[in-house]
From TrEMBL:
The keyword Ribonucleoprotein does not apply. Residues 1-204 form the GH16 domain. PROSITE patterns: GH16_1, GH16_2. This is GH16 domain-containing protein. GO terms for biological process: carbohydrate metabolic process.
């Protein structure tokens, strides 16, 4: 399948050149020259990469081809988070649920409070080819885009939490079949392992919007 026709990258974005790998580095491959990353899930588990710096607002995009085969039980994703695993994290998500690769879930957290999930019908199988997924995060608005079209828009409301902490860009592939007794992503079977999730043309906001780790 050929790539969809997309608008040029936002003028304030730049290719992601450096990543950190949080675990199982042998299951993550990064080529900064071609701006491609692959994540594999096999008998050893999965892996997770992230940007090396946090960003305070901006536009973040990547073309993603999800793993092929029976991916039931797996979660593959692209998301912003102030710090993975922190109970008070801010976060903005795209999450693919392995039981059905024709849908994607969006969500966002403020100070650890989430439960804002929405399911979106893609109109295609995310495993059949590359499609672009984007997050536009502003001071008062978040937009989630698929192939340049806005699929969800959230505005900051008085008295409600909204992401405002500087965040890393993350992606991972992992077995989520333990959540809700498999109701969320399905039960993992592994009949088509190894599973490979591909990312390319990853763009993040420009240097003027970077917050160095530790700031």
């Amino acid at each position: 399948m050929s790539d969809p026709v997309l608008l040029p990258p936002h003028p304030d974005t730049q290719p992601l050149k450096e990543i950190a790998i949080d675990y199982t580095p042998e299951l993550c491959s990064h080529c900064p020259i071609s701006n491609t990353i692959s994540l594999t899930y096999n008998h050893r588990g999965g892996s997770r990469w992230r940007s090396t710096n946090r960003f305070l607002h901006g536009t973040f995009t990547a073309k993603i081809q999800c793993p092929k085969g029976n991916t039931s039980g797996l979660n593959f994703n692209l998301y912003l988070s102030s710090l993975e695993g922190d109970k008070s994290q801010d976060e903005i998500d795209f999450e693919f649920l392995g039981k059905d690769t024709t849908i994607v879930q969006t969500n966002y957290y403020s100070n650890g409070d989430g439960n804002r999930e929405r399911i979106h019908e893609l109109g295609f199988d995310s495993a059949d080819g590359f499609h672009e997924y984007g997050i536009k995060w502003g001071v008062e608005v978040i937009e989630w885009l698929v192939d340049g079209e806005v699929v969800r828009r959230e505005e900051k409301k008085e008295g409600e939490g909204f992401p405002e902490k500087a965040m890393f860009l993350y992606a991972s592939v992992w077995d989520a079949s333990c959540i809700a007794e498999g109701m969320w992503t399905g039960k993992y079977h592994g009949t088509d392992a190894p599973y490979v999730c591909l990312y390319k043309d990853i763009h993040v906001f420009g240097a003027s919007h970077v917050q160095m780790v530790g700031e």
